[in-house]
Amino acid sequence: MVDKVLMRSKYRGTLLGALVGDCCGAPFEGQLMDSGSKLVLKKNLDTLEGPFFKAPYKKFTDDTAMTRCVANALLDPNGFSQKLLAKNFVMEYYKDPTRGYGAAVGDVFAKLRTTKIADPVGPAQEQFDGRGSYGNGAAMRVSPIALYCAKREKDQLLQLVHDSCTVTHANILGINGAILQALAIKQCLLLDPNGILDKKMYLSSLKRDINELEKANDRDLDANCNAYETQLSAIEQLLDGKVEPSDENVLNMLGHNVSALYSVPTALFCFLKCTAGTLNIAGQSSFRNTLEYAISLGGDTDTIASMACAISGAYFGSTVISENLIRHCEDAEGMIELADKLLEL
Ligand code: R7I
Ligand code: MG
Ligand code: MG
User: Fold this and answer.
1) Which atom of ligand 1 is nearest to the CA of 258?
2) In DSSP terms, which residues pair with 58 in a beta bridge?
3) Would you state the pLDDT for residue 325?
4) Is the dihedral of CA 57, 50, 54, 325 positive or negative?
5) 137 pocket-lining for ligand 1 (C-beta < 6 Å)
6) Within a 10 A sphere around the Cβ of 252, how many other Cβ atoms?
7) Rounded to an integer, what distance in angstroms lies between the CA atom of residue 129 and that of residue 310?
8) Sign of torsion, CA 180 141 329 102?
9) Mutate to test the pocket of ligand 1, among 24, 258, 295, 307 (most ligand atoms within 8 A of CB)
10) For ligand 1, is residue 22 a contact (CB within 6 Å)?
11) For ligand 1, is residue 123 a contact (CB within 6 Å)?
12) Which domains does the chain have, with CATH numbers?
């Protein structure tokens, strides 16, 4: 059972996890992580977790900027709508377009702005010659929906995630990645971190849901009709030792790029691989290991770390995240406030 105090901590842990992963991963985005860079990363995180020092805070990127837009759309007194979400995205983007947005998503915002959001999903459908974007930009911002739906029916989660995705990402692979990330968080919110995580059960539940989903939309997916199910099977093989979980094998099987298919399952694997022990015994090191390992894989580090740490934070709650680390991230207070408001909804 998860009581109200633990649930508050889990809500905060989810959004703070997303923020911390984004802020700490951003400086390494696109890097090839050799042993030297891994050492730099470790020292970097040790310093941020150590005694507080006043230094310029670590700025968040588009991952957090858009997560905040989704949360604010859910919290709107008039209720969530795609038009409102589109408006939030456009305002946020033009307030600060230098937050490292995906290369193509700016075109969507430009069209939404010039058309005064006449059709909130039209511009996204035109991306990539009408196929829509399969980037991980919809998955990276989905955590507030998982919080909102923690105790709601799965169908409501599916609908909301879908509607939040299609404002920028019309490709089914971009949408299903966001659904997988939301389901991974939702399941963690309901689990008791004082016990041992049953990784097999956790994964098979996700696999069942994804299988159902991919069966329902396999005509859209063409050759990719079981794309995510295949990735979840790869996670199983890496976890149960059928395949050696070396960095090389992980990257070959799961990937680390900006596409949702080759980053969302990677984030999920980072959480599962690094989670050992319980909330009180080794919970803190599980979170830190998830953060460090996700970044150490290189590639889309801010996004993979953000998604992995959001899942870890949803499982353990915010108490496993170093307070000093949190204080070094831009507007952590704002994320805590959003988490608390979402809990009250
Ligand atoms: O998905 P998106 O919002 O980008 C998110 C990523 C995260 O890593 C953030 O941290 C930030 O760095 O960007 O933005 P999009 O531009 O929609 O998609 C990202 C990229 O995926 C695109 O710029 C393309 O390179 C690639 N991509 C595609 N390439 C070919 N065909 C996405 N969809 C396609 C496609 O259909
Ligand atoms: Mg980013
Ligand atoms: Mg990224």
Assistant:
1) 8
2) 329
3) 96
4) positive
5) yes
6) 11
7) 33
8) positive
9) 258
10) no
11) no
12) 4-344 (1.10.4080.10)
Q: How crowded is residue 260: how many other Cβ atoms within 10 Å of its Cβ?
A: 33
Nearest to residue 17, comparing CAs of 335, 345, 334?
335
Ligand 3 centre and the CA of 20: distance in Å? 13
Those residues with Cβ within 8 angstroms of residue 59's Cβ, 6 or more apart along the chain or in another chain:
23, 26, 99, 330
pTM more than 0.85: yes
Q: Compute the distance from residue 25 Cα to the ligand 2 centre, in Å.
A: 9
Nearest-atom number in ligand 1 for the CA of 133 is: 33
pLDDT average per 10 residues of sequence, the chain (345 residues): 92 98 97 94 95 84 98 98 98 98 98 98 98 98 98 97 98 97 98 96 98 82 79 98 96 98 98 95 95 98 98 98 96 98 96
Q: What is the 3-state secondary structure (H, E, C) of the chain?
A: CCCHHHHHHHHHHHHHHHHHHHHHHHHHCCCCCCHHHHHHHHHHHHHHHCCCCCCCCECCCHHHHHHHHHHHHHHCCCCCCHHHHHHHHHHHHHHCCCCCCCCCHHHHHHHHHHCCCCCCCHHHHHHHHHCCCCECCCCCCCHHHHHHCCCCCHHHHHHHHHHHHCCCCCCHHHHHHHHHHHHHHHHHHCCCCCCCCCHHHHHHHHHHHHHHHHHHCHHHHHHHCCHHHHHHHHHHHHHCCCCCCCHHHHHHHHCCCCECCCCHHHHHHHHHHHCCCECCCEHHHHHHHHHHHHHHCCCCHHHHHHHHHHHHHHHHCHHHCCHHHHHCECCHHHHHHHHHHHHHC
Residue type, 177: G
Ligand 1 pocket test: pick from 70, 133, 256 the residue with the most ligand atoms within 8 Å of its Cβ. 133
CB 127 within 8 A of CB 167: no
What is the rounded CA–CA span in Å between residue 71 and residue 64?
Answer: 10
The confidence score (pLDDT) of residue 92 equals 98
Structure tokens at 49: 């977790």
Neighbours of 99 (CB within 10 A): 18
